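Q: Hi! First time doing this. I have a protein sequence and I read that you can turn it into a structure. Is that right? Here it is:
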Amino acid sequence: MERILIIGCGGAGKSTLARKLGEKTGLPVVHLDQIWWSPGNWKHLGREEFDRRLSLQVEKPRWILDGNFNRTLEFRMERCDAVIYLDFSRMVCLRSWIGRVIKNWGRARADMAEGCNEWFDPEMARWIWRFNRNNRKRYYELLGGLEGKQVYILRNRREVKRFLDKLT
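A: Yes, that's right. Below is the predicted 3D structure, encoded as structure tokens:
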């Protein structure tokens, strides 16, 4: 695995898994939230600039990309050699996200653009609650159509731990 894509609901642990995989493999980690959000108060780039920055990353020979950004998902899937889908329940994701908000309140996380400080966003809570209903079927269809790529579907934290433990 030289180009790994990590997808899944907010709160599932995509960024945490990306960091741990990066430590184990030596692959550079790219958090899509850092590309999408401009430094400051939750202001995002336009699509063209985001696409340009994303293209620069996926052209590289080695990477771990974490994030969904459904509009660009197929583009990234074409260029990766492995996809990890964290298919967790919405309750697990919501609970993890709330814990992350509390832990990092008022500070930007390492996987976020500077100045995008953690806060309780009701829209994010709704997005997490609806994520599986809105995305799961499409994700499985996309993953089922991938040829010549490694696909890992991890459904809970225990499976993530086993996956990481198996890596040499």
